[in-house]
Amino acid sequence: MTGSTSNANGGRSQLGSQQTERRRMNPTASSCDDIDEELALFPAPPTVKYQDPDHHVIQFSGGVGSALVALTVAERVGPSRMTLLIANTQVEDPDLWRFANDLSSLIEVPLVIVEDGRDPWQLFKDVGFLGNNLFAPCTKYLKQIPCRNWMTEHAPPETSMAYVGIEPTKKDRPRAQSIIRNWAPWRVEFPLLHGPDRPKEDLLAELRSHGLKPPRLYELGFPHNNCGGSCIKAGQGQWKHLLDVFPERFARAEREEEAFRAHRQKEVAILKRRRDKITRPLTLAELRREYERDKANANMASAAKIV
User: Fold this and answer.
1) What are the tens digits of pLDDT across the range 250-279?
2) Is 219 buried (19+), middle (13-18) or exposed (0-12) by CB count in 10 A?
3) How confident is the model over 88-136, as pLDDT tens digits?
4) 0.90 cut: is pTM over it?
5) Listed residue (24, 253, 245, 252) closest to 131, CA to CA
6) What is the rounded (10 degree) CA torsion for 20, 5, 248, 243?
7) Weakest-pLDDT range from 39-43, 76-80, 246-250
């Protein structure tokens, strides 16, 4: 297993004897039937005798939640014992990296970028499974594994603390326990969960109060700053929004989905549709045609009213 890291300025950094090598995981292609076994949870962690943490690692996603966590931890422990750790999925919006560098400069904490080397579409080909809004192998292979590899080399669990920026909402709070289990043996803290529930706009306003310009995906109406707006876990509404805002990104996802279906000769899709108690795959091509037809009908109806 190989990997790569880079610093906030985009150059490769010498953070360990193996960090300058590309960390690429190439699992044997498997059928969709046995994908659950291949993507099982990480092995049971060893017993660890914890000490006071002297290394504080922010699991930085490029989003508002993890950015606010970084600001909180920097105020608490200072920058000298911190790392901003982020995984590059190869499909992030360019403005994510502008924002990441702005945050790194503001709190004077190095930005460490780890990567598998593949984008989600190549990964889906390799594992033989098309990610969808219920199960996304890209999360494990493109984010969790590269980050855990870096943590193993540079952040001993005995003396390190990981921080995750899940947002203080009723939807996100229940995720904390599964994140704690999946990150073991490292300890995990969630600074944003200590307070009351807060809407997204409140969190974005706090970012601005620190002099940080939020990532543009939020301003463009996306709920998260993940994968350039084409997150596999997104629902139909966000995919339609992607088609409106970044039609070229939607077009690429549509092509990749069709190529996977043709190669595997399976009726699978990123999205699902349930009607009359029957669930079936809903391809991006079908979603696009329906959405374009609905918009055309709406424009005709609006024009008729004006006449």
Assistant:
1) 999 999 999 999 999 999 999 999 999 999
2) exposed
3) 999 999 999 999 999 999 999 999 999 999 999 999 999 999 999 889 9
4) no
5) 253
6) 150
7) 39-43
Residue 118's nearest CA partner among 38, 1, 20 is 1
User: By the 8 A CB rule, do 87 and 119 touch?
Assistant: no
**20-44 confidence digits (pLDDT tens):** 333 333 333 333 333 333 444 567 7
> What are the CB-based long-range contacts (under 8 Å, 24+) for 279-286?
282/236, 283/254, 283/257, 283/258, 284/239, 284/250, 284/253, 284/254, 284/257, 285/254, 285/257, 285/258
Q: Which residues of 125-139 are buried (b: 16+ CB within 10 A; e: fewer)?
A: bbbbbbbbbeebbbb
Return the beta strands (E) in 16-156 as ranges: 55-59, 82-88, 111-115
**The tokens of 125 are what?**
């080909």
C-alpha gyration radius of the chain: 21
DSSP symbol at 79: G
* Nearest CA-CA partner of 291 in 237, 232, 221, 220: 237
Q: What CA–CA distance (Å, rounded) separates 16 from 18?
A: 5
Helix, strand or coil for residue 59?
A: strand
